Every structure is written in C-alpha cells, then in structure tokens.
Amino acid sequence: MKTPLWLISGYLGAGKTTLLKYMLNIVDEKIAIVMNEFGDIGIDTETVSKKNIEVKELLEGCVCCSLTGEFNAAIKELIQNYGPELIVVETTGVAEPEALITDIQQDLENVSLDAVITVVDADTMIRFPKISEIGHIQIETADLLLLNKKNLVTEKQLKELTEKIKSINQRAMIITTNYSEFDIDTIFDLPARPLSKVKEKHSHHSNIEHFSVIPKPFNKQKLDSFLDTLSNVFRLKGHITIGNKQYLLNYVAGRWDFEETDSKVDKLVFIGEKLLSYKNKIVSDIEKCYT
C-alpha cells in the first residue's frame, strides 16, 4: 500500500510553515515531515517537532533540483524506519515544484502524491503585482491554492486576486484563508492528479542569496526601527531574545511580527535578491540594535 504525500509549495513568507503547524494540530494520522529550508540554519524544524511526528530536514539546497537524490533517500528512510500514515513535504520558498512532482510520481514507488498545495500571499501580491516566474510555476502546478492573509486586503482586491490566480490555474480549487487555516477534509475531495510525463531540469533562484547571523539580545525599539527601513531583504526569519523572552521573528517584504516561543538558541536567516553584496551593511546595522 502506498503512503499518501502532500506537497506544500509557495513563495517566501506566504504561510507554508503556518499551514504545516495548523495541519499537525488537526490531522490524526502518524505523520512524517520533510522540511527544505533555504539556508544553512533550520529555523522551523523545532516549531513543528512534536511527539509521534518524525521530522527530516534538508538544508543548503533545493529538493526540486540539487537535493533530489537526498530527498528520495529521505522519503525511503522515513517509510522504512518510521512507517508514517502520511508524509508532508514543505519546499523552500524559491522551489519550482514541477520537477519534484514528476520525481515523486516516477521514482518513489511506495508513495502516492495526493495533493500539491500552494500558499499564495494576498498582501504581497497586492503590493508587488508582478508575479515572478517561480511564483507563476508554483501557482500553475497546484491542486489546491490557499489565497492567504486575506485580512490584509480588501474584498475587492481579494476578488481581483482570485481572478488573477484563476487565469494561471483553472484546474485548482481556490480557498481564501487567514493563517493558512481551512477545512483539511477539502484535500480528500480533490480530483486525482494527472501523471506528469516529463522531468524538467532547470536552474532557478540564481539571484536569491542568503546569510545567517547568531544575534545578541535586542532592544525592541531599535529593532523595529531597523526593520522599518530594511531594504534588499525579502525574507527574514529566526529566533531572537528581547528582554527576558524568546520570540520567533517573521519578516516578509516590509511586514513583520513577533511570536513568543521557547527556543533556547538565537539565530536569524536573511534572504533576498543579490543579498550578499549588502551583507556587511546589514550586519553592521543590526548589531546597533543590540541592548
């Protein structure tokens, strides 16, 4: 019997990990998770780790190209050693999932690809209307599209975005969400996914660069000022300390929030286009925010 697999896709900061955490709270099956983060430090693994959930982390590469072999090995190892009833794969935000979809369908005999779920950031699509090639592919390959963060846009904008997404993918079901929450049973009502015939080889996100920082405790006011003027960084995520408390910092294209957490290790990952040329200035500026 094949193990069902759900593939979660979507651009940086759209709400993929939020969706994953939501799923873990309401799905009863024995779950194995494969997380592919863009960077040398995994931020989200400890936030989804729970009892009876096995997490496999793949870093410093992308499961849809450079880590294909490691991905296949990880899936086979999870099935053999853990015996999950469901596998959930969260790809990095700059992944083009079409080659991975073909790889799963053709090369993993013990796995059934039941759903490709793409999370779309409504707020970012309004503020940055041009859809990147990667974003277009992520939408195009989905069986289920979650138009997320609907609370940050108007009803009119939401309708316009829905039509825009439909023009890219008429086959997929579209659900508008906040915090990536929706009726999980919807997945079981999706039609069977057609078999992909061609495994495309490609090179992507060549201009997307990242670096990591192990920060000291922050002054909240200084940090907010830094984030308010931060440019060239599209995505910033990590665990930080403010006062005597630990927080998960989520920054996406000029918006950010702090979620209280119990992580014991501070770490930040910066992601952006051609970012390394700005690294020294960013590091210098963030060091001025320490207490």
Features:
291 residues; alpha/beta; Rossmann fold; Hypothetical Protein Yjia, Chain: A,domain 2; 2 domains; seven-stranded parallel beta sheet; five-stranded antiparallel beta sheet; 9 helices; 29% helix
Give the topology, please:
Elements: E1 3-10, H1 16-26, E2 31-36, H2 45-48, E3 53-58, H3 68-81, E4 86-90, H4 98-107, E5 111-121, H5 122-127, H6 133-140, E6 144-148, H7 155-168, E7 173-176, E8 208-213, H8 220-228, E9 235-242, E10 245-252, E11 255-261, E12 267-273, H9 279-287
Parallel strand pairs: 1-4, 1-5, 2-3, 2-4, 5-6, 6-7
Antiparallel strand pairs: 8-12, 9-10, 9-12, 10-11
Characterize the biggest β-sheet.
Answer: 7 strands, parallel
Strand residues, percent: 25-35%
Report the mean per-residue pLDDT as an integer: 87
**Number of extended strands:** 12
Q: Note the overall shape.
A: globular
DSSP helix fraction = 25-40%
CATH architecture term of the largest domain: 3-Layer(aba) Sandwich
Number of helices: 9
Gyration radius from CA atoms, angstroms? 19 Å
Stretches where pLDDT is under 50 for at least 5 consecutive residues are none
Write down the CATH class of the largest domain. Alpha Beta
Number of domains: 2
Strand order of the largest sheet: 3-2-4-1-5-6-7
How far apart are the termini?
Answer: 56 Å
CATH fold group of the largest domain: Rossmann fold
Order of helices and strands: EHEHEHEHEHHEHEEHEEEEH
Would you identify the CATH H-level superfamily of the largest domain? Answer: P-loop containing nucleotide triphosphate hydrolases
Pairing-aware structural class of the strands and helices? alpha/beta
